[in-house]
Amino acid sequence: MTERLSDSKVRSEYRRKIHERQVLLFGIIGAVMVFLLLLNTLFWTGLIPFPFKHEFSKKEVATLVYPCSDEGAKPTELKKIPVRVFNASGKSGVAKTVSDGLKTHEIQVSSTANWDGDSKVAEPTRILTGVDGINNAYTLRAFFPDSKVVYDPTLKSEIVDVVIGEGWSEMHSHPTEQDFTDAMKPQEKCTDPSDL
Fold this sequence. Notes:
The protein has 196 residues and is α/β, with parallel strands linked by helices. The chain has 4 helices and 5 strands, in the order H-E-H-E-E-H-E-E-H. The N and C termini lie far apart (101 Å).
């Protein structure tokens, strides 16, 4: 019987030691987890700065630059304007429809495609131009009265990109002389071409 008691005592001692080890191990794990949770909360709230550079997580917002037309600028002869038409409206066939409409006025449409640019085009129409094509872009505003002329530094010739946006409904198919005169007026908050 004493042998059974001693076996029982040994087992009980063994269980007690195992229990102590488990309590210690889970206590340390729990304390580390609480510490990490507090540390991450401080990073998240911005109370302490994150120690690693994280520019990759910031999305750059492109600022659009609106070039001014020259004072007293006259519309460009339509058949001398080179154009590419892009569809960013989400509607099928819009670039072709606009392209066909421009071609009826002898405008040189070199290509049509879906827009794969970096930014979303929410306005009805965005006309992209380099420095050399500003007059061409303003002339095209007669066909797209709600459009914005936007400077694109990648365009190095007189070519103009017409991007049909999500707000697009239709093109002004037969602009008048007054429409062309109004189209040549500088946009609000525009930048002088010499500053581009």
